[in-house]
Design a protein that fits this description.
Elements (H helix, E strand, L loop, with lengths): L1 E5 L2 H16 L6 E4 L6 H12 L9 E4 L1 E3 L10 H13 L6 E2 L8 H14 L5 E4 L21 E4 L2 H7 L12 E4 L2 H5 L4 E5 L5 H9 L17 E6 L9 H9 L9 H11 L1
Parallel strand pairs: 1-10, 2-3, 2-6, 3-5, 6-9, 9-10
Antiparallel strand pairs: 4-8, 7-8
The chain binds fructose -6-phosphate.
The site of fructose -6-phosphate has 13 residues, from loops.
């Protein structure tokens, strides 16, 4: 796992955009994995800025969201379908038909979960997955004690997650109790993971993810087992890390052979499709 500690969220958004751009330019028909919430908003804005300036093109790109609330109609302003449409599909000019969000309003939720997994497989898997982290260590909506082998399924949101997300709703009781989320096993199969975290309220979860044991009590600790995971932090989110000076030293001295070269990314993608 690579840990990058930067002075501001804006620098983090730029680095994450560089990483997404590397993947976009390494082959055609890129499959993006999308998180919602506050953490990736700067990244999406930076990708949109690069698109407007002509530096990035998203033709042929498809995408899969990590999760969706159960029971919110897809046109509800806080449904992740609405947020992905407003923050990603429109600003990046993606084809709406190529951007998938789990169907939290389906009559057959179990069938919708199965179909979502199949759609990811049919697309050849996710090339680069953007992640945030919950204050309780969740990724997607895989709450503590989620199985590392889990696939897309219905989950019950923890009281902490409901209270953390209440800021997006008019009142806390409007936050749905259930969601559909990609599983930890699903997320583990994506070829590249880029996790963004900002702010002191994430510091404990970040320290558990990076320096704690690999445990279902901190679902994000899964990243310790992934061959290509980068964690991009601001100084507050990094403030509980024991080895932060070492991570900064490693990043500053990153040798050329450790950088991702486009040919290797292209070869990896071809191998899996
Ligand atoms: C949302 C998601 C969640 C969030 C996490 C952090 O799609 O997957 O894991 O990334 O709850 O949320 P923010 O970024 O709002 O702090």
């Amino acid at each position: 796992m690579e840990i990058v500690i930067l002075r501001s969220a804006q620098e983090g958004a730029q680095l994450a955009a560089d990483m997404v751009a590397e993947v976009l330019t390494s082959g055609s028909n890129t499959v993006l994995g999308l998180a919602t919430g506050s953490s990736p908003l700067g990244l999406y804005a930076e990708l949109a800025r690069r698109r407007r300036s002509g530096a990035l093109h998203f033709g042929g790109t498809s995408a899969f969201a990590l999760d969706e609330y159960v029971g919110l109609p897809s046109d509800h302003p806080q449904s992740y379908a609405s947020i992905i449409r407003d923050e990603v599909v429109q600003p990046l000019g993606l084809d709406p038909a190529a951007v998938h969000v789990p169907d939290g309003s389906a009559d057959d939720l179990v069938g919708a979960c199965r179909a979502y997994e199949q759609a990811i497989q049919d697309a050849g898997g996710v090339d680069v997955q953007i992640l945030g982290i919950g204050a309780n260590g969740h990724i997607g909506f895989n709450e503590p004690t989620s199985s590392f082998a889990s696939r897309t399924r219905i989950k019950t949101l923890s009281p902490q997650t409901r209270s953390d997300n209440a800021r997006f709703f008019d009142s806390p009781d409007q936050v749905p109790e259930h969601c559909i989320t990609q599983g930890l096993g699903t997320i583990a199969e994506t070829r590249r993971l880029v996790l963004l975290a900002q702010g002191e309220h994430k510091a404990r979860a970040v320290a558990a993810m990076v320096e704690g044991p690999v445990t279902a009590m901190c679902p994000a600790s899964l990243l310790q087992m992934h061959p290509d995971a980068t964690v991009i932090l601001d100084e507050l989110a990094a403030s509980a890390l024991t080895l932060s000076d070492y991570y900064s030293y490693v990043y500053e001295h990153k040798p050329a052979w450790q950088r991702h070269d486009p040919a290797t990314i292209t070869a990896e993608r071809e191998r899996h499709k």
